[in-house]
Amino acid sequence: MTPLLQFENITLRHPSLERPILLDINYSVQKGDCVVVLGANGSGKSSLLKLLDGRYRTNAGKIILKNKNILSLSARARAHCIHTLTQNAQDNLFLNLTIFENYQLIQKRNKADTIDSLADYLYSFNPNLATKLDVLVARLSGGEQQALALALAVLYPPEILLLDEHTSALDPKTAEHLMALTARIIHERHITALLTTHNVNHALAYGDRILALKEGLVHDCIERNDKQNLTAEMLMARCY
After folding, report:
1. For position 148, what pLDDT does the model report?
2. 144 Cβ neighbours under 8 A, 6+ residues apart
3. Which of 3, 50, 88, 238 has its CA 20 to 30 A from that of 94?
4. pLDDT single digits (tens) 125-140
5. Which residues contact 117 (CB under 8 A, 6 or more apart)?
6. What is the pLDDT of residue 112?
7. DSSP letter string over 166-191?
8. Given this model, what pLDDT does residue 114 score?
9. Domains of the chain
10. Backbone phi, psi, residue 231, to 5°
């Protein structure tokens, strides 16, 4: 089966750094995969995602998406295929607009959803959102903002969803709830996803496969069957 996404000998450098941010990365992602990108701070996790969504550009190698070099896609075409969620709500939401106004900005013209149907849709992500359609996003809690960002991101599911430590700014209880919600949505909607984390428990609990990075290199690749037999202590020893 041809992979949906391929990293081929990807290298990323910055002039101010002696060591490459990423060096000779080779990895394939199949359609429907949820890959957890695991590693310490500075391992290159976020940089790998930024190469995908266009915030960074490779120094060497290429990224193939659906048999096409990703650089051949226009910014609009890439944005249509790939959506990124980060820990910062302002990266995905307009804080000075209401929930409903944020929704209207992405609503397709031929989609005639009512306020009631939007409330029903948002209820499954966070019940509070259904009662706050006319509230400014800036006035929502961090957990509500991230749940809203996720809901809007998958309203029209992208080809690839990038989750760049999107729960790391939340308190532990809220973060766990949002991680479980994210995993359920990805599974139910068959979304291909790459999720970065340095949390070994999250790496074990969520996703199909683990790509472990260390100092910009592929340190380990763990498939589903192998992952199921690991404990947090074993994964820590193996990947850090």
Report:
1. 96
2. 126, 128, 129, 132
3. 50
4. 999 999 999 999 999 9
5. none
6. 52
7. TTTTS-HHHHHHHHHHHHHHHHHTT-
8. 67
9. 5-239 (3.40.50.300)
10. -100, 170
